Each structure stands twice: as C-alpha cells, then as structure tokens.
Amino acid sequence: MPDPVDIIVGRNVRQFRALRRVSQLELGEALGLTFQQIQKYEKGANRVSASKLHQIAVFLDVDISALFEGAGMSPFGSRVELSPDAYALALSYDKLNSPAGKEAVKTIVTLMMGETAETTA
Questions:
Q1: How far apart are CA 103 and CA 3, in angstroms?
Q2: Which CA distances in Å does 98 have to 4, 89, 104, 105, 106?
Q3: Would you place residue 1 in the very low, low, confident or very high pLDDT band (cuts 50, 70, 90)?
Q4: Cβ–Cβ under 8 Å, residues 52 and 43
Q5: Which residues contact 90 (CB under 8 A, 6 or more apart)?
Q6: pLDDT (tens digit, 9 = 90+) per residue, 57-108?
Q7: Are 7 and 18 in contact (CB under 8 A)?
Q8: Which segments constitute the HTH cro/C1-type domain (predicted)?
C-alpha cells in the first residue's frame, strides 16, 4: 500500500506537469527515466528520491515545497490550497517587475470579484 505522502506528491507532480503541458515521456527524458517510472511516481506506487524531487521541481519551475502541498508538511503553517490555475496566476503575478502592473492586476481582480458577487446576489 503506497504511503499517503507519496500519493500526494505524485498527484502534485502530475498536476504541475499537466499545467505546463509536459508529457510523461518529456519529463522522463529530462530526468533520465522512462515514462513508466513517471507513471509510477504519479500514482504513488514508487517513492521519489530527494534528488529526483529536486530535478522535477527545477524542470517544472516550481518550488519543491509545492510538490508537498496537501501533505500537511508545509513549513509555512496553514496555507490556502490553490488550484493549478490560481497557482500559475500567482507565479505570474510574482514575476511582474512593475509595481504599477501589480496594482493593476489587483484592481482588475477586485473589480471582477465585485461583478461576481453582484451577479450571484
């Protein structure tokens, strides 16, 4: 029986891989593995070594802690769980260099949230 943390890590690898439109074959080739090994990692059937976790995080351009999201192991205490789209948006926002650009994004999202609240009320 796979360990629950292995299942969570595998699920997160699969989500980030899919979010970046990377196939199991492409990820496997980048790591020197077969796509079957990636399948086993994603199902939690095989454990991922620390060095492979690091390689996966670098290749998928995510913080290694993101691969453990949902495992109750966050060093930051309680954090909000984000969907893959929300996480991608947060990463893009964080990469913005312009304070005015960040403020514009916040304004747009705030306005859209107001529209959503008005239409559901």
A1: 43
A2: 41, 16, 10, 11, 13
A3: confident
A4: no
A5: 82
A6: 999 999 998 998 887 754 544 455 677 788 788 888 888 899 999 999 999 9
A7: no
A8: 13-67
Instruction: Output 3 or 63, whichever has higher pLDDT.
Output: 63
Alpha-carbon distances, residue 21 vs 24, 75, 85, 87, 102 (angstroms): 10, 28, 13, 15, 26
pLDDT at 111 over 50: yes
Cβ neighbours of residue 75 closer than 8 Å, sequence gap 6 or more: 65
- CATH of 4-68, picked from 3.40.50.150, 3.40.640.10, 1.10.260.40, 3.40.50.300, is 1.10.260.40
Q: Put residue 33 in one of left, alpha, beta given phi > 0 → left and psi -120 to 50 → alpha.
A: beta
CA distance 39 to 11: 10
Q: Which percentage of the chain shows pLDDT scores above 70? A: 86
pLDDT number for residue 78: 47
Q: Could you identify the residue written with the tokens 């997160």? A: 12
